[in-house]
């Protein structure tokens, strides 16, 4: 039997790596080509390394495509957590979602998760009008991406670094390519043969704490509505404990803001909001009976402040076949998988499996 064709995947974030792995598992030869690779110093434009990252869907109640991606990814990651233990880089937690605005309620997706429960009015803290809880998952981004790189190599896939000006440029570097998969996220705004003007950054700033005593429960406070078309709208304060003992607190959401530097006043605001939601973050030695915690109580446990640009797209994620690339008399099919905004981690495996379906149908 002749070997399956070579697929070149452009982009090595969570979306490119999971796509490459599923394609390798389906029998394709796979090469990944990207400017930023796991293990590089943090960079705002490499969203996968800046993310929280928890599995917390924003899928609109009518959005069956997003719901399916998010649910499939949850099931795959839950299986990883159960079978790989420490090495999974995934933490299983109890997640509590609080809603502050009158009339607000949870998305239906949460009802499909294990241990879902709607909280009684009598259980609500003063800042919430509604709350639900369920079992969720969080990822240690660096170790999880490193694990995917090892898996891809074990499957025979290769990775090379290149800053591309176009998808055609990737074909020039990998001339045996039969199919090209574009997972370049915000890069799709400037690659000269994609130039997707719907792509834009949604800046996010988070603070990474070292607080291993807070490993069992994640919490989110939603103020205002999620976006009407499914998405991370309103003001969200979140506490994301990780297996490593880090706890990520956030967040912010600034459209078309390319400032890659943390803003000091934002860091203080994040700490203030996080303490209101999760006072247990204060290290034991700094707790004073009867005293309200203040942002400076967290100063000794701040590891770093991180800024990232979510790869947002007007009209939603583009996971579809594109125009063939015609280069030097050859016509190469293209499949796009980019524009996951704030949901790339929680939808990655579902999206990767849809990429395999599109590639297999070519
Ligand atoms: C603060 C913050 C918190 C987040 N929290 C969550 C969360 O809790 N849950 C969740 O699901 N998601 C979360 N996200 C969103 C998530 O991080 C993204 O959706 C996801 O990382 C997108 O993955 P990606 O692989 O498409 O993009 P990226 O990780 O940005 O990777 C893009 C890849 O394409 C390459 N590339 C781009 N342009 C070029 C070029 N010209 N030449 C060569 N290579 C190129 C890059 O080098 C990189 O390898 C968060 C994001 C941020 C910023």
UniProtKB/TrEMBL annotation:
GO cellular component, one term: cytoplasm
Cofactor(s) the protein requires to work: FAD
Keywords: FAD, Flavoprotein, Oxidoreductase
Pfam annotation, one family: DAO
GO molecular function, one term: D-amino-acid oxidase activity
Binding site for FAD: 184
Highest taxon listed in the record's lineage: Eukaryota
Domain FAD dependent oxidoreductase: 7-357
BP GO annotations: D-amino acid catabolic process
Residues where D-dopa binds: 238, 310, 342
InterPro entries: D-amino_acid_oxidase_CS (IPR006181), DAO (IPR023209), FAD-dep_OxRdtase (IPR006076)
SUPFAM superfamilies assigned to the protein according to its UniProt record, in alphabetical order: FAD-linked reductases, C-terminal domain, Nucleotide-binding domain
Family per similarity comment: Belongs to the DAMOX/DASOX family.
Record protein name field: FAD dependent oxidoreductase domain-containing protein
Species name: Schizophyllum amplum
Biological classification of the source: Eukaryota, Fungi, Dikarya, Basidiomycota, Agaricomycotina
């Amino acid at each position: 039997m002749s070997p399956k064709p070579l697929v070149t995947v452009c982009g090595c974030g969570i979306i490119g790596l999971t796509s490459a792995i599923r394609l390798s598992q389906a029998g394709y030869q796979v090469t990944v080509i990207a400017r930023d690779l796991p293990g590089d110093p943090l960079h705002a434009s490499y969203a996968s390394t800046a993310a929280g990252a928890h599995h917390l869907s924003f899928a609109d109640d009518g959005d069956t495509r997003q719901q399916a991606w998010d649910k499939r990814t949850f099931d795959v990651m839950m299986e990883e957590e159960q079978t790989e233990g420490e090495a999974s880089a995934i933490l299983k937690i109890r997640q509590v979602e609080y809603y502050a605005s009158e009339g607000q309620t949870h998305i239906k997706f949460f009802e499909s998760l294990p241990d879902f429960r709607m909280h009684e009015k009598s259980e609500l803290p003063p800042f919430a009008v509604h709350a639900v809880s369920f079992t969720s998952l969080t990822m240690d981004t660096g170790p999880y991406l490193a694990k995917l790189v090892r898996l891809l190599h074990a499957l025979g896939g290769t990775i090379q670094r290149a800053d591309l000006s176009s998808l055609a440029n990737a074909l020039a570097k990998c001339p045996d390519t039969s199919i090209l998969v574009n997972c370049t996220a915000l890069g799709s705004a400037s690659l000269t043969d994609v130039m997707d003007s719907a792509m834009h950054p949604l800046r996010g700033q988070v603070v990474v704490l070292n607080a291993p005593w807070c490993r069992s429960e994640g919490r989110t406070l939603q103020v205002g509505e999620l976006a009407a078309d499914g998405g991370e709208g309103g003001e969200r304060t979140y506490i994301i404990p990780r297996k490593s003992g880090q706890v990520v607190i956030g967040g912010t959401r600034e459209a078309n803001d390319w400032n890659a530097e943390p803003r000091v006043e934002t860091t203080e605001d994040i700490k203030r909001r996080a303490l209101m939601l999760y006072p247990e973050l204060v290290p034991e030695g700094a707790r004073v009976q009867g005293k309200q915690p203040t942002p400076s109580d967290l100063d000794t446990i701040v590891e770093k402040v991180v800024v990232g640009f979510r790869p947002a797209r007007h009209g939603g994620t583009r996971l579809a076949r594109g125009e063939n690339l015609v280069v030097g008399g050859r016509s190469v099919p293209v499949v796009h998988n980019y524009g996951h905004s704030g949901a790339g981690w929680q939808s990655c495996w579902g999206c990767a499996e849809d990429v395999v379906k599109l590639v297999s149908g070519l």
